[in-house]
Design a protein that fits this description.
The protein has a four-stranded mixed β-sheet. It has eight helices and four strands; from the N terminus they run βββαααβααααα. The chain has 149 residues and is an alpha/beta fold. It is globular, with a radius of gyration of 16 Å. β2 and β3 form a beta hairpin.
Length: 149
């Protein structure tokens, strides 16, 4: 099990398949209504956090470690830990993460920079998934995935 310290004064832990990201619940709550709800007392993890005075542990077994770590670095303003050009797979997983947690607006600035940096890379131009993830990072309010029904 590895631990990545995003916030040295953390009060929450995002647990991804044995890896822990030590984060600030306040930061995540400010950038995501989904995380905000998770840290409130009516959720099991939020209630335990209040009762024990220990960091809240939020299991995220379905989420990608690299994309989640990247998101947390951006949200916590850890500029030195943010790559200048994330991999296409990381960007795809980041777009999925941002859609799931309704937090794309937190990374729009970096998303724009990443797309500008990768505009000339031909392997990104052919991937529909990469194109969608890039567009989601830049225009989070204009693209909504189709939901059945």
């Amino acid at each position: 099990m590895s631990k990545v310290v995003i916030d040295p004064h953390h009060d929450a832990v995002l647990r991804l398949n044995g890896d822990d990201l030590l984060v600030s619940s306040k930061v995540l709550s400010l950038v995501s209504p989904v995380f905000e709800a998770m840290f409130k007392p009516h959720f099991k993890q939020g209630f335990e956090h209040l009762q024990l005075g220990e960091p809240t542990v939020i299991p995220l077994p379905e989420d990608d470690l690299e994309a989640t770590t990247l998101f947390c670095h951006v949200a916590h303003h850890c500029s030195y830990d943010i790559p200048s050009i994330p991999s296409p797979l990381c960007l795809e997983n980041l777009a999925i993460f941002c859609d799931k947690y309704i937090c794309a607006e937190a990374i729009v600035g970096y998303g724009t920079l990443w797309i500008q940096e990768t505009a000339g890379l031909s392997h990104l131009k052919t991937s529909v998934a990469s194109y969608y993830s890039h567009m989601l990072l830049i225009f989070p309010n204009n693209l909504q995935p189709c939901r059945g029904g």
